[in-house]
Amino acid sequence: MSWKSFFTREKKEDLDQGLEKTKKNFFGKIASSIAGKSKVDDEVLDDLEEILVSSDVSVETTLKIIDRIEERVARDKYVSTKELNGILKEEITALLEESNNEDAVDFEIPKVENGPFVLMVVGVNGVGKTTTIGKLAHQFKKKGLKVVLGASDTFRAAAVDQLKIWAERVDVPIVQQGMGADPASVAFDTLQSAKAQGADVVIVDTAGRLHNKINLMNELTKIKNVMKKVVPDAPHDVMLVLDGSTGQNAIEQAKQFTKATEVTSMALTKLDGTAKGGVVIGICDQFKIPVKYIGVGEGIEHLQVFNKTEFVDSLFKGSSLE
Question: What is the pLDDT of residue 132?
Fold first, then answer.
């Protein structure tokens, strides 16, 4: 299926609105910095570098973008500030194309032999992990898939309760043992139950603790090993959920989690409430781990499949540096 066929006008409008604060912050600063200037020179590039970093694109990624623009300026001898908008868009698009993001699919999952597709979700508390799981369950169910949730975040009572609320809202079964239960035991029971029910997808929530990476690493490893006893290749995807509104802190969390466990995909939440949407660019570039989903609003339909082309188009839509 082509992404064009499922990226509807409504989804595009949601994405445009979700990135509005980032766009105003980012292009407002650039427009101010080049006011009265006609040529992209060292001063303009210095200002652009500062703006990219302050927009949470990250230092490493910013330097790559600036280097690329400098090369073009040197090659073309003269680049007007009117051309800066297009050049910046082209270089950010190229950077995202080089990252490890797969082509967008409409909440589809690969077929798995000997059991359901198992998605293990990791991330610190407060990033929107449980909400993301609920919204994913909703989208998978809309596709006609049978979904089972596993409440393996037994460290906080609220985490289990929140997941139960989402399970009821979306009307999918949940396996839980309550606060203080062994997370691996819950995961084991979840996969056994899902297999018995002929489920297509299992989403397992896990505790979001980073203050002791060794404990976190051991716990996640134990959960993985136990799940393999039921579904040999599980988990098929380990998704890290990050709060986009925290900017550089999200990048730091990604560094910590990728050291503690294997992460195979990411989801970025809360982009609608922040001017720090540039963090998506830095995360794609630095980690080379597919960003699969982004949250652009509070509604149940506001979790979107991440499409880099549509993301950049929305970011630059209506912007003018002239």
Answer: 96
